[in-house]
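does this look right to u?? F0G version
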Amino acid sequence: MKTIIEPFKIKAVEPIRFTTKEERTTLLKKAGYNPFSIHADDVLIDLLTDSGTSAMSSEQWAGIMLGDESYAGSKSFYKFDSAVKKITGLKNVIPTHQGRASEKILFTVLGGKGKYFCSNTHFDTTRANVEYSGAEAVDFMTEVGKHPEMKADFKGNMDTEALESFIKKTGAENIPLVLMTVTNNSGGGQPVSMQNIKDARKICDKYGIPFFLDACRFAENAYFIKRREKGYENKSPLEIAQEMFSYVDGCTMSAKKDAFANIGGFLAMNDDNIAMLCRNLLIVTEGFTTYGGLAGRDLEAIAQGLVEILDEHYLEYRIRCVEYLGEKLVNNNVPILEPPGGHAIYLDAIRFAPHIPQYQFPGQSIVCELYLEGGIRACEIGSVMFGKDLPDGTHISPAMELVRMAIPRRVYTQSHFDYMIEVIIDVYNQRKNLRGMKITEEAPMLRHFTAKFDYVD
Ligand code: F0G
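got this back:
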């Protein structure tokens, strides 16, 4: 088989700025050892997120010029509306400025004290929006999904047996929604099988609970189903995506991921009543129902992005990029979450730096070293993001301690990947020098964005 190549030519380029290790040492210290506080201009390869960082196509940029900026009923909205409906088949499509705006609206309408939302894994903003409404977010990961070193085809799946016992115990009337995240971002960008979606649907039907997708990376998930699930080999990614959505009552979506847009999202559902309440709230917080916090040109970019994201050549290249990075790291004994997921490689910080206890944030220490060594910006997904400190000083650690290197869509070439591999291997070879860290300042919610750190003595 020949090399899988980028299925595009590059028409516009954006220079990246080189810094010296001495400069990076000063910059990192100034940022309180939190890469979220580093200026992007001081980053060489930015793997902080795959969200909003995609390179748009010439067709998308052409769409930007076609944007109809009418306040109500713009042509661009109807293009967006039909692009979403073609894939999801959902009746009410509500544009929002990004995924978390959809979450805020949905959980404000359905949430509140005494309610429980169930998911394979809630993403951090999703969990925060559930909790902000007064409700609780409960995750049902499968056992295999909790072990970075174990390989399985669909590690993003929900433990549907655990879901059903929870429903029986808690009472269906207290569970307004089950939300399946595809792919499972916090669980390692791992896919969810069609069978698991069907199983969850069945349970939701049995207890009369609405079932939604957090669809941010629906196209990557569809491609994994094509590659790994029996019976889907000859189906197109669009057909698979349509089937995934056919099992749900609604979805939240960040168009900053699998719609190649720099901003945007939507909330979609079949229920007219809930949609009416969501649209009311949309008008208060986002904007009128046909633009929802976006410009007409953004709606154009999303509509076109939703077509391009399901191109099979693109998806093959996309998944191969991540797999290539993972493969080279594994060949050099670097511990990663296996198998590689759809949008990112996750370093397994517990095996990478076993001499640093979880309460001293081994992932954050690796993140800092990747920046110092090679100007690469990654993101800790472990005790900084999900750990909790009890009033008695006990530290509750999450199941996994990961460092996420998220790959922006259509942005980096193979030599960028080879450079990333060199830097990560260098950091791994010098792993004994990694030091534990402590938090010196933190916010009460989503502390990872703004916390400041220092090394422990
Ligand atoms: N759900 C999932 C699974 C996500 O990964 C994200 C965002 C959101 C919801 C929220 O969407 O950013 O448009 O408000 N994830 C980004 C990330 C930020 O880096 O993984 P948003």
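The first strand starts at residue 45 and ends at 46. idk if thats expected tbh
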